[in-house]
Amino acid sequence: MACFFNQTAVPASYISDTEITCRPPFIANTTTLDVTVFGYDGLVADGTLSVSCQSVPEIERVQPNSATSAGGTLVTIFTRDPMDAQNVERVRCCYGKHVCSSGTIVNASVLQCVTPAMESGSSTLTIVLGTSQDSLINSTEVAFRFVSDPHIFNVLPQRVFLSLNFTISVYGNHFVSSDELACILRTEDGDLQLSAQWLSKELLTCSQPHEMMEDSVANSVDALVLLTFNGYDMIETGFNVTLLRPPDVRSIAPTADSNSQLSLALIGIDFDTGLDLLCKTAMGHG
C-alpha cells in the first residue's frame, strides 16, 4: 500500500477501515498536492490535500560514514522520506559549518557527494538543498569522520603458506580502529579480503582462515597488500606478499652424497627455493 503525493510515492500503513497513515515526502514549497492511495488491489482513495511540506529532510544513513582526509571519497546519503526531486535544483554536502561540496540526486531518496580535502578528525555531514523558490533547506546532520592516510613502513612476513592460518603484520602510523577495517590481497585473478585487527596506531594484523584461502588461490602468486578502513577507500601499502602453495611430499627415499653421508630425499611438488625447510623425525617406541 502506498500514498502518492503528485508523483512521489511513500509507504502507507493501514490503521482501520476508515484510516490510512503515510508520511508526506519532502516537498520544496507549500503547495496543494493530489493525494492518491493505492492498495494491493488497486485504487483505494483519491483527492486533494493542502499540505505545508517545507520540512527538514532527515538523513537516515550514510555510506561510508568516514573518508580519507585527502578527499575524493564518493559518499551516498539515504534520506528517511522521499524528496520532490523536480523542485530541487542544487545539492550540496556540508562538513562541519564551513566546507561544502556539490552533490547529485540519484533518486527521490538517494543523493551522492564527493568529499573535499579536510583535516582529520570528527565532523558532521549535512545536505543542503537549493529549491526552485531560490531558498536553501538544511537537512538533519549525522556524524562523519575524516581519517589521515597512513604511512606504511613494512609488511611481514613477505612469504606465507596458503595452508596455514597465517597472520600478516602491517607496520606504520596513523592507523585507526574501524568496524570496516580490512586487508586486501590483490592478485591478477582478483582481490582477497582478510579480516584485520587494530592493535595500535602503528600496528595492524591481517588474517584469514586457510580453508577460504585455499579455495581462492590455485597456485602460488604475488599479491599487493592494500588496506581499507571504511570498505570503500583502498590504500596501497607499497608492499607485496607471496602466497605459496605448501610443499606436497609424495615420497621419501634414502640417498648418499659423495662422502657416503646418508640422507633423506623428499620427492614431491610445490617446493620453493626461497624457503628454509626443517626436517624433523620422530622415533617410535615398541
3D architecture notes:
It contains 1 helix and 24 strands. A hairpin with a 5-residue loop joins strand 23 (248-256) and strand 24. The protein has one helix spanning 210-216; strands spanning 2-5, 8-11, 13-16, 19-21, 31-39, 42-51, 59-63, 66-68, 74-79, 88-95, 99-107, 110-114, 121-131, 136-147, 151-156, 159-161, 167-173, 182-187, 190-200, 203-207, 221-228, 235-244, 248-256, 262-269. The mean pLDDT is 80. The chain is mostly beta strands and 286 residues long. It folds into 3 domains: 2-51, no CATH class; 59-147, Immunoglobulin-like, CATH 2.60.40.10; 151-244, Immunoglobulins (Immunoglobulin-like), CATH 2.60.40.10. It comes from Phytophthora cactorum. Residues 57-142 form the IPT/TIG domain.
Topology summary:
Elements: E1 2-5, E2 8-11, E3 13-16, E4 19-21, E5 31-39, E6 42-51, E7 59-63, E8 66-68, E9 74-79, E10 88-95, E11 99-107, E12 110-114, E13 121-131, E14 136-147, E15 151-156, E16 159-161, E17 167-173, E18 182-187, E19 190-200, E20 203-207, H1 210-216, E21 221-228, E22 235-244, E23 248-256, E24 262-269
